[in-house]
Amino acid sequence: MSQQQYGLVLSGGGAKGAFEMGVWKALRECDYSLGAVIGTSVGALNAAMIAQDDYEIALEFWSNLTINQVLDLNKKMTNTYVEQWSKESFDVFRNGFITALFSDGLDISPLRYNLTQLVSEEAIRNSSIRFGLVTVDITSLKPRQLMIENIPEGQLIDYLLASAALPIFQKQEIDGKTYLDGGFFDNVPINFMLEQNFNQIISVEFPAPGMRKWVRDKNAEIITINNSEYLGGIMNFDSRQIEQNIQLGYLDALKVFGVLDGKHFYLSTHKSNTFFRKFINTLGMPLSNQKQLQKMLTLLNLPADATQSDILSSLENLLRKTAFKNQPLGLSMLEIAGKSMGVFRLENYSIDFFIQAILKELNRLLDENLTLLDNPKIIGTFLTPSNNNFLRYNFITFYIVFLSIRSDLSPERMSTFLSKFSPDIALAMITIFYIHEIINH
């Protein structure tokens, strides 16, 4: 095994497994060499597709996946509902449904059929990427951790279904033994991968029901990829959720691999960064728009003769009061502005395109909210001491009111006004000023 080969570990979690497809896309783009892939439950199904190394087929499967391709919500239940349950109270329906569910279990024959179309056992056995899975033999109450060479010929799909056999599914039997979802033993089988002599491991993990074993080898190099957003429920096969989960896996992995920067967004600072460099170099310098300069200095509680160093120091102090405090100032300010305005998150942005996205969203919000100032109560809310009504306002309200407020307010009223600004709102405001500065000059 070459020094650069990694073992990939995929956790279980039903429909959340779409996230692992996105991680695979990132692995392919970043040229990671995989020597083995081991999964539990849906992670085992994805692991088989990765070992087979046919990304396009796997992506097409996930992109078009519906609940009907996993489960046969069978006619028996449908007929029972029409003939009996629909005529009774909800309690009778619920109890009848649960009884039917746990006596027969949900029929996953559609999933078996789809796997026969999707998975080539021969390709996996001949693959340079070794494949493994985890399941539990409930006949003997023992876990089964199996590499492909330990799975009898012709039984790969049986064992894939055994690894993903949730208790609500019909019993999965192989050679007279009944199997249960591998998550009941180890939902993130890192130790099993270590036993295959891989010390460099990429582990894809997300919240899901199941057991998690402590990693035994403290010297292993483990790169962990977690989801940064909620992935939906394990049985949520909504196409939009699946598409989002694939994109999230892709972007979260690229960030872990060091390709993208950012805490909240996914930003490439290596290419198309002309505006970004101008933004960084201009940050802290006096603004050419004198009204905006005066308002910025007031917001930062700085005198009219403040230097670039003074302004940068005040911006850093504000940044320390935000969730972005451990990032460079310029990058953090852009992210705070983008987040404050609701710029779409799940996209691979070049940093210059991100600056344009901020401006585009600002202009859209301004168009939608220009009538705000027709309501005199809004400005009154900002000028009234200890009035909490302002908390319901979003960034664009603060921005419009801030631009419209008169500079000759008494110090007391100006102080009251500025006390309503959170560090994030203040930094987002100043970010917009500097973006306009670099665009206009």
UniProtKB/TrEMBL annotation:
Q: Respond yes or no to whether keyword Chloroplast is given for this record.
A: no
Question: Mind listing the UniProt keywords for this protein, alphabetically?
Answer: Hydrolase, Lipid degradation, Lipid metabolism
- Put simply, this protein is called Patatin-like phospholipase family protein
* The PNPLA domain, residue ranges: 8-194
Motif GXGXXG per record, residues: 12-17
Q: Where is this motif: GXSXG?
A: 39-43
Q: InterPro entries this protein is in?
A: Acyl_Trfase/lysoPLipase, NTE, PNPLA_dom
CDD domains, alphabetized: Pat_hypo_Ecoli_Z1214_like
Motif DGA/G covers 181-183
**Catalytic-site annotation from UniProt:** S41 (nucleophile), D181 (proton acceptor)
Q: Which organism is it from?
A: Acetobacterium malicum
> Transmembrane among the record's keywords?
no
